[in-house]
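Fill in residues.
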């Protein structure tokens, strides 16, 4: 970790967050949903719209149209492609922009209309050379990754079920979550198979919705309506050299997650034992196991045993995805998980609140792996 990056620790803070309802909203579009989230985040922050001089857009068709809808003319802007891995990238870019003076207050906007428009992730709409072997979607490749984890380390689907069961428990405590009906390990084991060994309850939930996060300097954040949440550390590593055969090997993620996590912790001065809440990208439940190992919460190959007995649930050793995550809250591609980290540190989560939560870590085990550490300002 270079001295330059260490100097960027705590140079940016989250001052406001906003989310919409999640579901099917065919009457609106990405711009309308994003504008809703933007209004909520502005109210949450206490910032005047005229103070927004930075804009990050993701999964929104045209950044200029978004600015026009909001009525802002930023001096710094970034538009990101619609991949889930962009949430961590976008937040880090906004933090760097604030820390280096490119912008004073940045609004990050993400919107998804996947449910009402019946958007597919994979399949015939994005055919690849791997289709003849059955790898027609991201779920297929993650199923193969988990199958390999089972073969190498003895991990079982009953252990994997602990992830889905814990996150559904959290969703039941979240008034805005989409799926709240409690589930058991047996429910997981008997759910409809999708791509074995993965079943229905191992897959994320595609919904319409939007997220807004407002980032500024810690000094300006202290004048906001809510306590500032500092961006204390971040790290990343891309995995492009194996991208021609995407994501088949769980060990592909291990080194990248390890490096990203170590960089974030070195930058922040936060150790694994200091983390009170983990927000782990859960497009599919095995990704959480891979993340736990890479971040060093358990030894390599031991994630299945680590999560047994409710480790990831509220009251467990490592409460994870306390909003229900992608598996039971909704799939906002990492953005809502970062909002949950902020709300946990602020103490705003009511029945799902982690006591004395002052450190939260976000991780996305993806082809562009990123990790961010948030702390109380």
């Amino acid at each position: 970790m270079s001295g330059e990056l260490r100097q960027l620790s705590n140079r940016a803070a989250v001052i406001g967050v906003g989310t919409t309802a999640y579901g099917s909203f065919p009457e609106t579009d990405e711009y309308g949903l994003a504008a809703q989230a933007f209004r909520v985040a502005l109210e949450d922050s206490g910032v005047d719209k005229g103070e927004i001089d930075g804009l990050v857009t993701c999964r929104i068709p045209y950044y200029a149209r978004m600015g026009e809808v909001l009525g802002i003319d930023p001096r710094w802007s970034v538009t990101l492609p619609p991949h889930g891995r962009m949430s961590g990238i976008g937040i880090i870019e906004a933090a760097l922009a604030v820390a280096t003076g490119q912008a004073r207050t940045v609004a990050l906007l993400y919107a998804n209309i996947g449910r009402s428009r019946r958007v597919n992730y994979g399949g015939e709409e994005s055919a690849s050379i791997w289709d003849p072997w059955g790898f027609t979607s991201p779920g297929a490749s993650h199923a193969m990754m988990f199958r390999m984890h089972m073969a190498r380390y003895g991990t079982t689907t009953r252990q994997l079920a602990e992830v889905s069961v814990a996150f559904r428990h959290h969703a039941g405590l979240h008034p805005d979550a989409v799926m709240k009906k409690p589930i058991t390990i047996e429910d997981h084991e008997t759910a409809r198979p999708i791509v074995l060994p993965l079943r229905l309850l191992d897959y994320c939930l595609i919904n319409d919705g939007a997220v807004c996060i407002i980032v500024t300097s810690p000094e300006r954040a202290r004048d906001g309506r809510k306590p500032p949440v500092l961006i204390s550390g971040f790290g990343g590593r891309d995995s492009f050299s194996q991208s021609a055969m995407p994501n088949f090997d769980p060990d592909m993620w291990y080194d990248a997650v390890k490096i990203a996590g170590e960089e974030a912790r070195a930058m922040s001065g936060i150790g694994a034992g200091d983390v009170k809440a983990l927000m782990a990208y859960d497009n599919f439940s095995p990704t959480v196991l891979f993340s736990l190992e890479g971040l060093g919460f358990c030894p390599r190959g031991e994630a299945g045993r680590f999560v047994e007995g409710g480790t990831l649930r509220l009251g467990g050793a490592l409460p994870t995805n306390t909003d229900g995550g992608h598996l039971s809250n909704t799939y906002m591609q990492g953005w809502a998980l970062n909002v949950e980290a902020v709300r946990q540190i602020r103490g705003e989560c009511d029945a799902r609140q982690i006591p004395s939560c002052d450190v939260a870590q976000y991780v996305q085990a993806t082809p562009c792996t990123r990790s961010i550490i948030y702390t109380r300002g």
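The first strand starts at residue 13 and ends at 19.
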